[in-house]
Amino acid sequence: MPRGPTLLIIGVLAGLAFPALADSVRPLMAAAIFVLVLGTFLQVDGAAFRRALGRPLVSLLLPALAMLACPLAVGFAARGAGFRPELIVALVLSVCAPPSTGTAAVARMLGFDATVPLAVTLLSMALAPITVPLIAAGFADLALDPLALAARLALLVVGAGALALLLRRQAAAQLARHSRTIDALVVASLLLFAIATMAGVRAQVAAQPATALALAGLAFACNLALQALGAVLTLGPLAERLTTGLILSNRNVGLVWSAMGAAVSPMTALFFAATQFPIYMMPRLIELLVRRERKEKASS
């Protein structure tokens, strides 16, 4: 059976190849995100999570880097490169979103420590109602409702966190016995979400194939640049550097997308969809890099 990272690629390609499948699972996207966050809360060690929150790198630097430095840097770089205003808006809005709720699950899937991405994601979500509207107004002249953003995030995080806390207190032994089942549910949720993100994309690609290809290339370039930035700025083992790269590069664009509503232009919508390809395809490349490093260490 294919491993987790390979399943993500299968999911996103299946959603693109079978539009009816993507459309049918789209209504389940919110439930899939909830299960992702819940499963990650259940799998992460509580003491390790609290220790991670006590580190300035995790509690201050990485959230500020993700929510302020990265979107501003991408925006000014795109302006300097002479990109069209509409494309600059799409780039900035995609990067000002908080890290993806699935990042911690992907990190765990790759054998990395999931506590840091979970902590940074939660702290970034707390910042999002402040930073996202400000950056959207500055670069795109858009007015996003901070209270609506906060409500969406609170419903997701507080709901999943409260349920996880209840389950940990009332059924800790059962959770330990069924850890593999929880892992499988998280992977299934990621797969479902990957398929759902492709709803409507096939028609957009068919209508504008050249534009879609260019935007996909730009999405991969932006994702790789942010992954490289995270790896360069992080000291320590390869796993920690790659984890930071995942945090900075994989963004919850669906949150900004839903907050914008009818204000989303066709170009921005197509770019938002294109950002899903590197999010679900790059973990396979990261897995290969990690395997190679482990083999080199084992042979030395």
From TrEMBL:
<protein>
    <recommendedName>
        <fullName>Bile acid:sodium symporter</fullName>
    </recommendedName>
</protein>
<feature type="transmembrane region" description="Helical">
    <location>
        <begin position="255"/>
        <end position="279"/>
    </location>
</feature>
<feature type="transmembrane region" description="Helical">
    <location>
        <begin position="146"/>
        <end position="167"/>
    </location>
</feature>
<feature type="transmembrane region" description="Helical">
    <location>
        <begin position="32"/>
        <end position="49"/>
    </location>
</feature>
<feature type="transmembrane region" description="Helical">
    <location>
        <begin position="87"/>
        <end position="106"/>
    </location>
</feature>
<feature type="transmembrane region" description="Helical">
    <location>
        <begin position="179"/>
        <end position="201"/>
    </location>
</feature>
<dbReference type="InterPro" id="IPR038770">
    <property type="entry name" value="Na+/solute_symporter_sf"/>
</dbReference>
<keyword id="KW-0472">Membrane</keyword>
<feature type="transmembrane region" description="Helical">
    <location>
        <begin position="118"/>
        <end position="140"/>
    </location>
</feature>
<keyword id="KW-0812">Transmembrane</keyword>
<feature type="transmembrane region" description="Helical">
    <location>
        <begin position="61"/>
        <end position="81"/>
    </location>
</feature>
<feature type="transmembrane region" description="Helical">
    <location>
        <begin position="213"/>
        <end position="235"/>
    </location>
</feature>
<keyword id="KW-1133">Transmembrane helix</keyword>
